[in-house]
Amino acid sequence: MNLDFTQVIPSLPFILQGIGVTLSIVAVALLFGFVLGVFLSLLKIGKYKTLRFLADAYTSIFRGTPLVLQLMIFYYGLPQLIEMDVPAYLAAVLTFGLNSAAYVSEIIRAGIEAVDEGQKEAAMALGIPYSEMMKDVILPQAMKNILPALMNEFITLTKESAIVTVIGVMDIMRRAYIVGGDLYLYLEPLIVAGMIYYALVMGLTLLGKRLERRLRHSD
Amino acid sequence: MINVKNLDKSFGDARVLKDISTTIEKGEVVTVIGPSGSGKSTFLRCLNKLEDPSGGSVVVDGKDIMDPNTNINDVREQIGMVFQHFHLFPHMSVLDNLAYAPTKVKGLSKADAEARAQDLLQKVGLSDKAEQYPSRLSGGQKQRVAIARALAMEPDTMLFDEPTSALDPEMVKEVLDVMKSLADTGMTMVIVTHEMGFAREVADRVLFLDEGRLVEDAPPATFFSQPESERAQDFLAKIL
């Protein structure tokens, strides 16, 4: 066995800089995906058939094709249509956001449907308009139920973000790969990358647990 | 005043309300009784359009709830409702449960709404529970909070859908007492209930429903001592 981490040490700062890149892709995609996901879920439970169909079709397409394909379409394919280069970072954020929205919308739809119908009736009987009812009564209760599933989605997103490597975004993964190529020594930098991802995921998990505890105060 | 005319309601092929007509006057306390599955709750839920009537009309203070130009939320603002299973908002404190709708719908300031809420909590004997969450309350307490929440909107009419049916026996009285004192204030009330003693004592009128039809519409004294229909006689014989 010849594992030699000493050679990687000088390149550590270079790999660690990828954390910022990865996190910024994940954070923006997460926010974008969440907002769009909430919107889609509201269409899915809404009364307009056409909008319901469109939201379902959207989900079906983004869940039914490989993420890496979607990424390549946005990066390599889209410029052909708009006759403009799409920066790699933008393509990454866009793909992950749109993809995540499809999953998040399903999670939230299920969460909304799990809220007792009586809550809706109580709000209606008080004369509370639909949008206020959703915002103040239904969604807060749905969020509590779906937090574990949502955290799961965010964790998946963090890990899957590694595939932005294929379009050349300088994230943790890409940097580890470059260092590997430079040193002609792949296993060590890849192990380092793995440790960084693992630490990020553990951090997210802890954050989720803490959030869950905070939301449980009314039980 | 609520004017119900030829009200019909079907769920698919099942016709659960058949041609019901009655008028609920201002200040009247009306109890709706009948066997389970007779359409009592559906009738009540048609009054504030929690169920869409299939035919006929329901007119609340001159506003036809079936008219697409009627803003149903304006009507619901005037009609409080209390449910069998309370349906308090579990993520809000008791105080917020009461203050929420008045701030959102009536545009009250938070301070005013909370003052009103405190006042109502005192009336239902739960001042000390203002900061609690509903899950900490007993069934009877939850239902009293639910009544207070409906009253916080200052409605003209209150609908009660089997308000004591989900309660432990020893908690029924505390809820009925609150309802009694509410009736004494002149509130218009429509109450679906199995509490015959309460119906006899508090109601001005009893509606007896059977298989979706309004079979009897009489003052309690008449209804309980000399019901006209065989179906009502049968029903009373079974439960009294």
UniProtKB/TrEMBL annotation, chain A:
Quote a single Gene Ontology cellular component term: ATP-binding cassette (ABC) transporter complex
Please name the CDD domains in this protein's record: TM_PBP2 (cd06261)
Question: Per the record's keyword annotation, is Thylakoid included, yes or no?
Answer: no
Query: What domain of life does the native source organism fall in?
Result: Bacteria
What transmembrane ranges does the database entry give?
14-43, 55-78, 183-207
Is Cell membrane given among the entry's keywords?
yes
The membrane-topology field of this record reads:
Multi-pass membrane protein
Q: What UniProt keywords apply to this chain's record, in alphabetical order?
A: Amino-acid transport, Cell membrane, Membrane, Transmembrane, Transmembrane helix, Transport
Give the matching InterPro entries: AA_ABC_transptr_permease_3TM, ArtM/GltK/GlnP/TcyL/YhdX-like, MetI-like, MetI-like_sf
Q: Where in the cell is it found?
A: Cell membrane
Q: Name one GO molecular function term.
A: transmembrane transporter activity
For the ABC transmembrane type-1 domain, which residue ranges apply? 19-208
Any one Gene Ontology biological process term? Answer: amino acid transport
The similarity comment for this entry is:
Belongs to the binding-protein-dependent transport system permease family. HisMQ subfamily.
State what protein this is by name. Answer: L-arginine ABC transporter membrane protein
Q: Which organism is it from?
A: Salsuginibacillus halophilus
At the highest ranks, the source species' classification is: Bacteria, Bacillati, Bacillota, Bacilli, Bacillales
Automatic annotation (TrEMBL), chain B:
- UniProt cross-references to PROSITE patterns, sorted A to Z: ABC_TRANSPORTER_1, ABC_TRANSPORTER_2
In terms of CDD domains, this protein maps to: ABC_HisP_GlnQ
- Cross-referenced Gene3D superfamilies, in alphabetical order? P-loop containing nucleotide triphosphate hydrolases
Q: Name one GO molecular function term.
A: ATP hydrolysis activity
Q: Which UniProt keywords apply?
A: ATP-binding, Nucleotide-binding, Transport
User: Sorted alphabetically, which InterPro entries does this protein's record hold?
Assistant: AAA+_ATPase (IPR003593), ABC_ATPase_HisP-typ (IPR030679), ABC_transporter-like_ATP-bd (IPR003439), ABC_transporter-like_CS (IPR017871), MetN_ABC_transporter-like (IPR050086), P-loop_NTPase (IPR027417)
**Superkingdom assignment:** Bacteria
Domain annotation ABC transporter: ranges:
2-236
Pfam families of this UniProt entry?
A: ABC_tran (PF00005)
The identity of this protein, by name, is L-arginine ABC transporter ATP-binding protein
Q: Which organism is it from?
A: Salsuginibacillus halophilus
